Automatic annotation (TrEMBL):
Pfam families: 7tm_6. Keywords: Cell membrane, Membrane, Olfaction, Receptor, Sensory transduction, Transducer, Transmembrane, Transmembrane helix. This is Odorant receptor 19. The lineage of its organism: Eukaryota, Metazoa, Ecdysozoa, Arthropoda, Hexapoda. It is found in: Cell membrane.
């Protein structure tokens, strides 16, 4: 939520006094946040696709040890890995959108009070 507050304050800076410097700061922060959220979303998507790749392989033609190992892999890949953002959950596109919406709320609040 600190990130949303920073975005709101930078937006207020753009509107009130220094538009060029504020836009540069805001684009840098948004880009960094998006890259983090995009990386977290890719990790989640890729770990979910492991189950499909294993299931579509010809693992059932292997010996008994391979079949047991593949069943364990299938069971483990049902729960995706994620890049954690501790109090908020996981870094993904929904977190990015939530931060952008919250920062707009902070911006409108700051714009009304100043």
């Amino acid at each position: 939520m600190t990130c949303a507050l920073i975005f709101g304050c930078i937006g207020n800076l753009i509107l009130k006094s220094k538009p060029l410097a504020g836009i540069c700061y805001l684009m840098g922060y948004i880009t960094a946040l998006f890259l983090l959220c995009h990386g977290g979303q890719r990790i989640t998507d890729e770990t979910l696709s492991v189950a499909d790749a294993v299931y579509n392989s010809r693992w059932y033609h292997g010996d008994a040890q391979i079949m047991r190992d593949m069943i364990i892999i299938l069971a483990r890949s049902q729960r995706p890995a994620s890049l954690g953002a501790l109090p908020l959950g996981a870094m993904n596109y929904s977190l990015f959108l939530m931060i952008i919406k919250t920062s707009y709320s902070y911006l409108t609040l700051l714009n009304q009070n100043t």
